[in-house]
Please model this.
Amino acid sequence: MTHKIERRADGLAVLSLKRGKEESLDRFHPWVFSGALRQMPSQGEGIDEGEVVAVEAADGRPIGLGHFQIGSIAVRMLTFDATENIDETFFRNRIATAYSLRRALGLPSAQTDAFRLVHGEGDFLPGLVVDVYCSTAVVQAHSPGMHFARDIIASELIALKELGLTSVYYKSETTLPYKAHLDPQNDYIIGGFNGDTARENGLSFRIDWLRGQKTGFFVDQRDNRQLLKHYSRDRKVLNMFCYTGGFSVYALAGGAKEVTSVDSSAKAITLTDANVALNFPEGAAHRSSAEDAFRFLDNMETGSYDLILLDPPAFAKHRSALHNALQGYRRLNARAIAKIAPGGILFTFSCSQAVSREQFRLAVFSAAASTGRRVRVLHQLTQPADHPVNIYHPEGEYLKGLVLYVE
Model:
């Protein structure tokens, strides 16, 4: 049955909440779940995915405006001012505000020109990620609304002259809801390829935004890589799930005796070797292996390494996979803790948003207990400040890490 969608005088569709469902929005949480709507529209009912809609309480009180989409999250709130226009000026102001925060953080700098400029809800632009690599911005949409706004976003990024951008690459083929049938194409919106090298804390990296994971590089581990560099001197380091070898390069820069990089992807190993060679053209104490992480840990000799880094891909992208993810973290960490040399340092991470900080800690603690070894926590880690967490949206704190000392 098709239902008539009410519209405001300015043409925006109006979605009404069930009674009492406005409480989280009154606390500025930026998501409206489909179950909170008095009636969830479906395709063909006069409202399109990605459309800007007005949200109101059951009593007709205006709440704000957001991007509509089919799915569990029905609306991502863009503003809690129902009179604001979602236009070029809106995006210009939000991007400028995001840039002002990065400037306060000292980004970019001569030492670091790889950083996150827009972090979705953390920068009040839900569904949008923008990473900067030197003079190229890589834009990633996680909602249909941001997909349709990509040209405006690209233009405003280039218009922010202080950033010094010459190219904007759009990379959303794997991040948009597949049910939206948007058929996004990864390609340059503005400019073209003008170099793929960026700097982070004085080290250089080749960034593969064309074919690489995420936007091409995991800029969220910048501070944690710097901490690992501090602990690496005179240690034998094992970097599991190395991807492009960021942690490996930092370990070598920190004076590690030797570094071993492991990833199941041969392509990742090639990228790692290239980044090591870029920073250490005269050679370095580094070897790499394209091998399954669990198999490598099973086969390696106990005590071979006294610093181990575990940074696996997300074990749980959805809550339905939470149980298996926690089991995976326990198994992985138990093997590493059992095999690490006495006095060893273990860096271990989870980037699964569905896994809470407490759940991850418990999984690692259970792993430690199963080995019978004495383990102490040295650091509790998270994402860097250019990945800010909206205080009203704690779900934005997705990266969890622990640094452990194993006796």
